[in-house]
Design brief:
This protein is α+β, with helices and mostly antiparallel strands and 442 residues long. The chain has helices spanning 10-20, 38-42, 56-59, 67-76, 79-88, 109-122, 142-147, 195-202, 262-271, 305-318, 326-332, 335-345, 358-369, 425-438, and strands spanning 2-6, 26-30, 51-52, 93-95, 100-103, 125-127, 130-139, 155-164, 170-174, 177-180, 207-213, 217-220, 230-240, 243-255, 258-260, 279-282, 286-298, 371-379, 386-391, 406-407, 409-411. The strands form five sheets. Strands 12, 13, 14, 15, 16, 17 and 18 form a seven-stranded antiparallel sheet that branches. It starts with a strand and ends with a helix. The structure holds flavin-adenine dinucleotide. The site of flavin-adenine dinucleotide has 38 residues, from helix 1, helix 2, strand 7 and helix 14.
């Protein structure tokens, strides 16, 4: 059987490996970039958090969309199978905080090299700089359809057309099975430009609305002077009209366009869902929120108000006679926050420590325990770790990822409407779907 795989990310490479393990198959992998795994290369800040070593029963808690759909592929190729696969193929791995799995070398290319090695051993024909531009199918005639069971596919895969991006030559090859693993539309510069959705639309395959998730948030107000500040081990509560929507503990980082960091990315996945209508006015770089969110940061989560006030009193006592309130603030805050806090609490530049009374102590406490930020937008696809939405899972057979409408056409990876939280889960589900799509027919 001739098998074509479109896209050389984790889903496509794993599909190619599995399909080529059957030596009856001739397997072609088309990748429009000059190299494989361009997105994989930047994952985990260049270290690639390739999977998570958690128990498979817990794994499903990290799947945000279409959990049930993925259970079938995960039962055939799980996080533990991916770990075994890497170790068996000379890619040693290590487990870090939160059971995150990384290559021992701390280099993401070790993962791509491992996939490449196995593909080479299996004889996969990798075509780089080769953009698939069309998928050609035969339309199954009505007569043919009527003779078969009701759910008969409307089309059957016939050929693939691709363009060599070096010389612009267009070629066509006859194919029996096509696996589309083109990724989502986040970080487009890595090659995930949404081509898979175009192929799906051609055959009336339903595409669910696309949303950026695991994405930074835009804020109201001027936080420029906090740019680059990383707040560690803080508490965060997100409210909409005073209703608590999400609560977490961890790190937040201020950056050029707002706030990011683990808490923010995970919160975006829980909160920015079209279903609860938080988002409107789509443009690629920024999505406005229908309802603004209030974020309250607790900079001292380990101390109660009372304990913190007692500490303040002690510090003020020790610093009596000193002029600058900065001397007090530096004991309570990261350096970058001192002038920001001073301006917010003590409007008068010449305010001295001796003037801090109960009212000012309350103001300091309020800011430390309830530092308020108004969230007004979600940043766009260019900054999103994953794309939510995509090929509707109801269009696919969860056992092998084949389209119900097109015989011989399969979808795997981020192009499908599944997404997970951070921690190595997204690469795992992409590889898992790729594995079952590349398997022999079920
Ligand atoms: C900055 C960042 C960090 C991340 N870190 C992690 C992490 O540490 N752990 C984790 O689990 N997940 C992480 N992710 C998410 C993870 O990278 C993706 O979910 C995963 O790569 C999806 O795999 P995929 O194979 O479906 O798609 P992709 O990896 O996007 O691969 C799709 C491939 O298809 C190719 N392609 C597209 N169209 C065509 C066409 N027409 N013809 C030929 N080729 C085509 C593209 O060039 C691309 O190479 C991160 C994402 C980003 C952006």
């Amino acid at each position: 059987m001739k098998v074509a795989i479109v896209g050389g990310g984790p889903a496509g490479m794993m599909a190619a490996i599995k399909a080529s393990s059957d030596n009856q198959n001739e397997v072609f992998l088309f990748e429009k970039n000059e190299k494989l795994g361009k997105k994989l290369f930047i994952t985990g800040k260049g270290r690639c958090n390739v999977t998570n070593a958690c128990d498979i029963f817990l794994f499903k808690n990290y799947i945000m969309r279409n959990q049930k759909f993925l259970l079938s592929s995960l039962s055939k190729f799980s996080n533990k199978d991916l770990m075994k696969f890497l170790e068996m193929n000379n890619c040693p791995i290590k487990i870090e905080r939160g059971l995150r799995v990384f290559p021992k070398s701390d280099k993401s290319f070790a993962i791509t090299d491992c996939f490449k090695k196995v593909m080479k051993e299996n004889g996969v024909k990798v075509l780089l700089n080769s953009e698939v531009i069309d998928i050609i199918c035969d339309e199954n005639t009505k007569a043919f359809k009527d003779t078969k069971e009701e759910k008969r596919a409307s089309y059957t895969v016939k050929a693939i057309q691709y363009k060599n991006l070096k010389n612009n030559k267009i070629s066509k090859i006859e194919i029996d099975k096509i696996i589309v693993a083109t990724g989502g539309i986040s970080y487009k510069s890595t090659g995930s430009t949404g081509d898979g959705y175009k192929f799906a639309k051609k055959f009336d395959i339903r595409i669910n609305d696309l949303l950026p998730v695991l994405v930074p948030m835009g804020v109201n107000g001027d936080f420029t002077e906090l740019n680059g500040l990383l707040l560690k081990n803080i508490g965060a509560k997100f409210f909409s009209s005073d209703k608590l929507l999400y609560e977490s503990f961890g790190d937040i980082e201020f950056y050029k366009y707002g706030i990011t960091g683990p808490i923010i990315l995970s919160a975006s996945s829980y909160l920015f869902d079209k279903d609860n209508l938080l988002i409107k006015n789509i443009n690629d770089n920024e999505f406005n929120l229908k309802d603004k969110l209030k974020l309250l940061i607790d900079l001292k989560p380990a101390l109660s108000h009372k304990q913190l006030d007692e500490r303040l009193i002690r510090e003020i006592e020790k610093l009596k006679g000193s002029d600058s309130v900065d001397l007090l603030l530096i004991k309570l805050l990261p350096k970058k926050m001192v002038s920001f806090f001073r301006k917010n609490i003590f409007k008068d530049e010449n305010f001295t420590i001796s003037k801090i009374d109960k009212t000012y102590r309350k103001k300091i406490l309020d800011l430390l325990k309830n530092f308020e930020i108004e969230i007004v937008s979600s940043r766009g696809f260019n900054e999103a770790i994953v794309t939510r939405g995509g090929v509707d899972c109801n269009e696919l057979n969860p056992k092998n990822m084949e389209c119900k409408k097109v015989k011989g056409l399969y979808f795997a990876g981020e192009v499908v409407d599944v997404d997970c939280l951070t921690g190595g889960f997204n690469i795992t589900v992409a590889a898992s779907m790729g594995y079952v799509a590349g398997s022999k027919e079920v």
